[in-house]
Amino acid sequence: MTVDDATSSNDLAVAFAVLSDFLSENDLTAQLARVESALVEATVTDAAEVVAEHGLTSELLTAALSVRSTVGRLNDVIHAATIALVLPQILEPGERVTNRPSLGAGNDKSRPFDLETDRRIAEFKVAQWKGADAMRKRGVFADLVHLAMDETNRHAQLFVVGDAPTRFLRTSAAKASWGLEKSSARTRERYAARFDPSWEMSVAEFTAGPAARIELVDLRELVPGLAL
Questions:
Q1: Which residues of the chain carry a pLDDT beneath 70?
Q2: Given this model, what pLDDT does residue 67 score?
Q3: How far is the C-alpha of 43 from the C-alpha of 53, rounded, in Å?
């Protein structure tokens, strides 16, 4: 490790400590509500005193920006680690991974699925749904459609976290047109040509019909840490 690397690591450790101290000492929602109330009718002098009193300092901002830039790809790490932990649990004797797994973010036409073997295809959705999940709903439906379009007859699996994604796919009356609204024009064209030219199917109808062969798997059963 060079001197610059050591300095950078130390700076990051300090930033983590500053941010951790602030978050551990305060319920952030309650803290922000107190600051908002205290700023009502504040003058320029009052405002400076209020923010300083509640710890919203330039040091805190610098620490938060530093941590965010460093851990910005944390979701990629979670996605990659999840697939890596699941793989040894699901591969059958003699089954071979036939294409590079897609562990990180980004679209790569040479790797159409997160996992491809000589026996299966699979997509992984590792997000934990919180309630307002419109983008996650569209994403998981798009992956279901993507798997349903495969014509190799390999076993297809969609790995999700918790009951909410599966419940959405199996019960939602939302139209497929809504579910694919943010998908590429090519995906929408292929969907309409193969499954639903009139765009009348709901998400639930598609899941029970064209996508019935796709196995929905709760990742919490394979990676208990995702239940946290």
A1: 1-9, 105-107
A2: 84
A3: 15
Angle at 41 between CA 49 and CA 21, to 5 degrees: 35
State pTM to two decimals.
Answer: 0.78
pLDDT (0 to 100) of residue 47 = 86
Nearest residue to 201 (alpha-carbon basis) of 148, 136, 132, 134: 148
Both tokens of 50, joined, read 């209020």
φ and ψ at residue 117, rounded to 5 degrees:
-125, 180
Could you tell me how far CA 84 lies from the centroid of its own chain? 16
Encode pLDDT of 128-172 as tens digits.
Answer: 998 889 999 999 999 999 999 999 989 999 999 999 999 999 999
Token pair for 212: 């019935």
